[in-house]
Amino acid sequence: MSSRIAVIIINYGTADLAIAAVDSVLARQHGGYPVEVHLLDNASPGDDAAVLSEAHEARNWGNRVRLWLETENHGFGRGNNLVLRALAGRSSPPDYVFLLNPDAGLQNEAIAILADRLDAAPQAAAAGAAIALPSGRPVTAAFRFPSAQSEFAQAVNLGPVSRFFARWIVPLPPDLPEGPVDWVSGAAVMMRLSVLEQLQGFDPDFFLYYEEVELMFRMRKSGHDILHVPAAKVLHAEGAATGVGRSRRKPRPAYWYDSWRLYHLKTQGRVRTIISGLAWMGGAALNVPLAALRGQERHAPERFFGDFTRLVMRPLLLGPRP
């Protein structure tokens, strides 16, 4: 009997993109795997709920797509947890869940390819697709876990430094061959529902960002593999849903820094998190004169030093912010 798959798409303010994401799933055959879609609107501003409801009827999605129209913005992880708990509570739950960003869409039979890989690798808890921008340019979809070394090297943004710390750099090459990695992009990832149950899903402390990294850290810690499967292909309009990925220099929202701090605390402990924070600040400080000498833009987000001090270092050193 074919493994059953539930697709989960979390929407916030991107109704048209979310509709296209659903259509990209429904347009595929999925290699015979039974597939259902869950589209959750996270209390979007404006008329997203009405637009999604109208699309459900106009496109005759029927029972292939279940709409979840929430009155509270739960964030990414908690929104997924709502659906995951409902799926796990069934008398016959699906085998896998496929998380797809609302600003992403299937480029091939990615769901079937990922399910095939998980069927063949019972020790694997998750499998992620290769990702390309709408232009067709491939982008990184597999990563190493962050560390103090990676934070420093990324912040300095200088070739010799990056090469010296190459074994710690978080993004792996976009053309990375198939195989196990630390973690994969949450924009298009299939996970084994039984493992999600065991780990109690996403950590509800996260609102947005780093929640999938922390979840896959726990998967790896519990002895499971995370697979990068480049044969599965997805297009992703990176940052369309949040705006954060569109410009490196754009100021990060407070919840991004909160998530950075939470991830490092939960996976490294307070002392190593402080070291990682100091490494990022030190690297960013070195980047200021280096960028000026090279006539380049600073690498850190705007307002980085003030925001990072207030939202990360102060809570780490003095306790949570009010």
TrEMBL record:
Record's keyword annotation contains DNA-binding: no
Keywords: Glycosyltransferase, Transferase
UniProt-recorded Gene Ontology molecular function terms: glycosyltransferase activity
Entry EC no(s): 2.4.-.-
Entries under Pfam families matching the protein: Glyco_tranf_2_3
Superkingdom of this protein's organism: Bacteria
SUPFAM superfamilies documented for this protein: Nucleotide-diphospho-sugar transferases (SSF53448)
Protein name listed in UniProt: Glycosyltransferase
Organism name: Paracoccus fontiphilus
Species classification: Bacteria, Pseudomonadati, Pseudomonadota, Alphaproteobacteria, Rhodobacterales
